[in-house]
Amino acid sequence: MEAVKVGLLGLGTVGSGVVRVLARNDEEISRRAGRAIRVVRAASRDLSVRRDCDLSGIALTDRAQDVVDDPDIDIVVELIGGTGIAYEMVLRAIDQGKHVVTANKALIALHGNEIFARASERGVTVAFEAAVGGGIPVIKAIREALAGNTIEWLAGIINGTGNFILSEMRDKGRDFEDVLSEAQSLGYAEADPTFDVEGIDAAHKLTILASIAFGIPLQYERVYTEGITRITREDVTYAAELGYRIKHLGIARRRDSGVELRVHPTLIPHRRLIANVDGVMNAVLVRADAVGSTLYYGPGAGAEPTASAVVADLVDVTRALTVDPNNRVPHLAFQPEALIDLPVLPIGEAVTAYYLHLRAQDRPGVLADITRILGDLSISIEAVLQRQPAEEATDASIVIVTAAVREANMDEAIRRIEALDTTADHVTRIRLENLN
Ligand SMILES: NC(=O)C1=CN([C@@H]2O[C@H](COP(=O)(O)OP(=O)(O)OC[C@H]3O[C@@H](n4cnc5c(N)ncnc54)[C@H](O)[C@@H]3O)[C@@H](O)[C@H]2O)C=CC1
Ligand SMILES: N[C@@H](CC=O)C(=O)O
Ligand code: NA
Question: Model's pTM, two decimal places?
């Protein structure tokens, strides 16, 4: 049978990885797909850059639309990134009846509702396994392998750069900026690395995971998002003394009144498998009613791990070319007309335990004032750690771990604690999840 012809947009970290993997595993891939898969044309903004792959046999251009408009091309692979030209080219490809494979989570999180509707109208598929968890087949697992379950919640380490930074800072005492530059040179980081460290990339991915888990439309703008830039070495140390690790998690939880969607640093008991996911590795823990807990683990970023997911999508799309479009796996796991508008709850309605760290004068009665405030707001204390001031300082450090509480109650407690004369005017709070 004739080879499937692929047009590639972007020849950066992931694009080059895709060219390499397709070439190296050509035979295995054809045996699986039933046909060979060939990149015949590729676009890159700067053609003078040396690529880490063999481009012989691939017609090159610096204009993405040359690839999209090429009538020979069956599948367009978008690996440019962002929501500008990538958005235009994906819609243009769909309008021409071409299937699309993309690793672009920003594009899917922000414009997926429109893109999938347009793709369904045109009877084409937009595949996006690489958009979440890099090489981990987590979209496929949730969308297909858990299809018999009601999913209750999921929690994931879904940004490789952020996890790499936190792990290197904790284990080797390295500097934030220094580790970030290394993540950039390894090709892990986004074009704008604030997307990684401010939690935006994780929020894009959580948006996608929540949609396919619960059958709700993509709603990136409703995700509560905090990054990792304010985590201090001191908090990492205190958390460890109390038996926890700090991880940057994306959490989606179904409640009676709606769904929680939140991305933030989180204390997790150090014995949990997910607490031991380090470096560029990602992991997504899914709690579902029939199967119980399942954990998906693997490299969350990098050229070939991400290419692995892109190429798997190419094989899926190739196999589905002959399938009636109505019988393909739906983009968001549930049939488009079966998506439901579960309300996304405001962060004040989230229910979690907390780690609090504050500085207070080292004299009698101070801790009693603090515990009274917590008690007045029905917040139970699980553990307290007190550290005397260093010689030159006058304030002691007090660390408190609480039981689960509605976030709005904790907001009020923190406001009252900060207003005490005996405390410094900033309480650090980090949410804590037992994940059991
Ligand atoms: N690097 C990674 O580990 C992962 C990246 N992704 C996603 O994959 C996509 C690509 O990421 P990377 O390969 O890391 O980016 P990159 O910056 O290494 O490569 C982007 C490529 O797009 C090309 N490009 C930019 N503007 C263009 C235009 N107007 N016309 C034609 N080509 C243009 C650039 O020349 C470059 O070849 C992004 O959506 C990213 O979020 C997803 C998972 C992991
Ligand atoms: N910048 C992202 C790349 C993969 O999605 C990350 O670090 O996870
Ligand atoms: Na994936």
Answer: 0.97
